[in-house]
Task: structure prediction
Amino acid sequence: ELKVEQNPLFLSMQEGKNYTIYCNYSTTSDRLYWYRQDPGKSLESLFVLLSNGAVKQEGRLMASLDTKARLSTLHITAAVHDLSATYFCAVAPGQNFVFGPGTRLSVLP
Amino acid sequence: EAQVTQNPRYLITVTGKKLTVTCSQNMNHEYMSWYRQDPGLGLRQIYYSMNVEVTDKGDVPEGYKVSRKEKRNFPLILESPSPNQTSLYFCASSLYYYNEQFFGPGTRLTVL
Result:
């Protein structure tokens, strides 16, 4: 059974600081996705990582995938308050998807 | 506007009373899926569909049914709801199974 873990589960950081969220999973998968969810809202797609070594960047967020280590990272650079949200990674070993528990990020002024 | 719609958005019902949550997308997507979201558990996939008439179980299919008779619609059916199915439900779609998914606004279901 595929298990997806995220660390940390809760993250409080100051504006302007850098931090990394980790997503690790228990069985082989070449596809990994990152989503963002604002409180009381639906999910929106951030990144799609489809191969080992894939790196994607959008604004202050950068995601990478290491399939050999079964690890993806979501790096936040110079955080701003607008990045406060819950971030989910999702692993897709086949046509199905397994989500992590989410990392709730609060960016404080 | 490209979107995934779900109805109803909120539903309170009683144990055993059959219900259907509708999901529709206007993006001509092949892949559609249902998830439930519970605190601390993230999203768990209930069922997914690769295309019309093709559906498969996700991680938590017990107590749910789905059908995909048309490409745009993917209803979720609870034949005999129970209190442990109280949850926030999301429908999602993507062009193909490996593309990013677009999520509907969610349906909050309470089963008394």
